[in-house]
Amino acid sequence: MIDGTAVENTILERLGSLDVLYELYHHHPVHTIDECLELPYAEADVTFCKNILLCNRQKTQYYLYVTVPKKPYRTADVSKLLGVSRLSFAPDDALPRLLSLYSGSLTPLALWLNPDSGIQLVMDREIRQPGRIAFHPAVNTATVIFRQEDFFETVVPALPGAPVFLDVPWPAAE
User: Fold this and answer.
1) Which SS3 state, helix, strand or coil, does residue 107 take?
2) How far apart, in whole angstroms, are the C-alpha atoms of residue 108 and residue 120?
3) How far, in Å, CA of 20 to CA of 65, rounded?
4) Which CATH number describes the domain made up of 4-166?
5) pTM for the complete prediction?
6) CA distance 174 to 167
7) pLDDT digits (tens, 9 = 90+) for 72-110
C-alpha cells in the first residue's frame, strides 16, 4: 500500500498543477457515503459522490462508477447502458492491486495514481448539479470540494482516459 500522506500529496500537487481551486478538509476516517454526508461541510449545495469499483465477469475490465449518494446501484441498469454483460462489484484485491488503495478511499482522482490501470471512469450524469462537488483525495481522512464547473471543465479532462457519462434511472419502487 502507498502511504496515505504521500497519496494525498500526489493528488493535491496534481490539482495545484491544474490551477484548480478547491477547499480541503481533514477529518476522521469515513468509510461509507452516509458517514461522508454527516461531515460538517456536507452542505446542501455540495454533491458527495458514491464511488463503486465494478468489473466484468472475467475480471478483465474495470469500471469506476460514480453516482449520487442515495441512488441504489442496480447491476442490470448500469450493465445495459455500458453494453457490458454481467457487471459485478470488483473483488476485494482489485483496489489495492490496481490503485494501491484501500476500501473507502476510491475516487476519480485516484486514477492519477496509476494512469495505466485500465479503469474506465463512468459517471452518472445526475452528479452534475448546481453548486459544488466533493471527493476524497484518495484517502478517507480528507475531502476536497470543487465548484462543479472546475471539476468537470478542468479536473475531469485531466484524468486518464475519456469518461463515459450515463443516464442511469432510479429503480422503480417495488
Assistant:
1) coil
2) 10
3) 23
4) 3.90.960.10
5) 0.93
6) 21
7) 998 899 999 999 988 999 999 999 999 988 888 999 999
Q: What are the cell numbers at 60?
A: 478483465
| Cell triple for 146 | 470543487
User: Where do the domains of the chain lie?
Assistant: 4-166
Report yes or no: 83 and 112 within 8 Å, Cβ to Cβ: no
What is the distance between the alpha carbons of residues 13 and 150, in angstroms, rounded to a whole number?
Answer: 16
Asked if residue 64 lies in contact with residue 120, where contact means CB atoms within 8 angstroms, the answer is yes
Q: Which three cell numbers stand for residue 110?
A: 485516484
Angle at the Cα of 54 from the Cα atoms of 51 and 56, rounded to 5 degrees = 165
Q: Exposure of 99 by Cβ count < 10 A (0-12 exposed, 13-18 middle, 19+ buried)?
A: buried
How far is residue 21's CA from residue 37's CA, in Å, rounded to a whole number?
22
Locus of grid cell 490496481: 98
163: its cell numbers: 469518461
Q: How far apart are CA 12 and CA 144, in angstroms?
A: 9
Q: Are 112 and 11 in contact (CB under 8 A)?
A: yes
Helix (H) or strand (E) holding 149: helix 148-150
| Strand 46-48 versus strand 132-135 pairing type | parallel
